[in-house]
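In practice, a research group might receive sequence data for several interacting partners and want a quick structural hypothesis before committing to experiments. The following worked case mirrors that situation: the sequences arrive first, and a predicted assembly follows.
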Amino acid sequence: MTFTTTTPEITYKVPKRHHPVIHFAVTQPLGAAGLVFIIVMFIAGFFAHLVAPYDPLALDYSVMLGAPTWDHWMGTDAYGRDVFSRIIYGARTALSVGLLSSLLGSSIGAAIGVISAYFGGRIDMIIQRLMDILLSFPIIVLALAVVAVLGKNLIGGLDVNLIFAIAIPIVPKVARVVRSSALAIREMPYIDAARAAGYGHGRIIFRHMAPNVVAPFLIMFTAFIAQAILLEASLSFLGLGVTEPTAAWGLMLSGASQEFYSQAPWMIIFPGVAISLAVFSFNLFGDSLRDWLDPKIKL
Amino acid sequence: MLRYTINRLLLMIPTLFGVAVLVFVLLRMMPGDIVELRFLMDGGQVSEETLQAERVRLGLDKPLALQFFDWMKGLVVGDFGVSMWTGRPVIDEIASRLELSLQVAIMATILATLIALPLGTIAALYKDTWIDQVIRVFAIAGLAVPSFWLGMLMILFLLLNFNWIPPLTFTPIYVDPWLNLSQLIWPAIAVGYRYSAVATRMTRSTILEVLQEDYIRTARAKGVFERLVVARHAMRNAMLPVVTVIGLEFAFLIGGLVVTEQVFNLNGIGKLFVETVTRADYTMVQALVMLVAAFFIFINFAVDLLYAALDPRIRYS
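A structural hypothesis for the assembly, expressed as tokens:
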């Protein structure tokens, strides 16, 4: 009796390692679409002076409230300014305010969250109560108050105080999420090891704990860019954010457009689409980034 | 449970006190007080004595600590003072506008819940199919479209198609429900869309989580109809986080109303807030901020209690 043993041909499916960007694009097509639009906006905003066909501030009383034509793709506003050019320049305003205020708010929030989790005990309790106080101010109310208190402070064409006002409401939300991630990290053996090695608080917090909360930080940072853009638009709409004659999307929906938009709907349709598309693509990208990095994080 | 409730109620006091300090300090840091704003607005020449006399009348000449103490003393007994701008009691000013804002907020909540629960559940049941993708785009778009712009589009649409715009004066619902609804349904939709987006996403993710649970598998193994598994076993258990989101967003609605009321020209709390901040009407702003904060904290607390009521596994101690 002979046995013939055949070794079955085993084929292992070795997952091909792609570059992270390609992996992201393949697994998160919606997010990749969002990213593409974000890049387009950045290019348009950065090179606004080359892309825009007209000066966004140039008045032309011969074409007031003009409908879209080949000369003015999105029509003109009550002062004869080219709506398309103002939208391109508005991208510059929205992106710079959105990015900077989200970066500022998320960074401060993350630092507070990590510090709060690291020290624990009474310090943690006091910080949490302070965050509760900030949280119980509705976002727009807080921003309104801060804008009113600080006034305007233009540096390089950007209102620094506006960025600050939009950043503050972001702080407690980021602090809360980062704190809960950092609480788990605090219990890790390497933190004990660092402490045993006699490292100072600052070194442990920023060299050992902070790098491990980068994932939630990145997710919150992108998510809040969208909210910051929306908040900037709302504040500008109320006349408390970016002010005339600077081109800003929210501002384009207020003032004269309030009176004339039934005659010249393009005055409000295009800026609104711009805000929605910008926020939409940041949300899509942020959402997919969360699914890709860490699906368990709840915003 | 009783002990927990009392503890939580007591904890509200320091938080509210913090809010009070913050708003008091913020207001006093604002450049220009109400007296200057009111008398020097039109570029008129007013003597320093007149300004000072007005400050004395409003109590603005007193040391800050004393002003704060007076305000706190009033708050404890429920006296919010009088508006520095109109001279009418703050309570009356707010009460006459609260009805409108509250109605819009409640209508938006009902609308949002009615949209979010079925949509979120369907998205979860058809996960990763085109249905899920469509609902996802609908929800993310809801977070992206500014409510004030949506409001403007609605007015534009009504005007161009029906040559009609919503009535501008507020009629209480018990006087003429039809007139009332024809005015307030639009802002409710404008704010409610964003709200429903948040709730839809929450419903989807919690239903997905719950469907992984053992008791769902047990129910299916017993041969329970899929429809009953979803309705009785999954949805009921997914309610908790959804209730939280609905509750928390309700508190935030007041903030969202600030811009929407501007678009529809509604004389509500949000509009009052913008007006009083720009007028530096200290007593009004303080009262409004305290009201909104207290409301937010209370809703938070109510949501936690509701948790325990909905889920017998949760017991606070």
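Before designing any experiment, note the following. The first strand of chain A starts at residue 154 and ends at 155. Chain A is about 65% helix and 0% strand.
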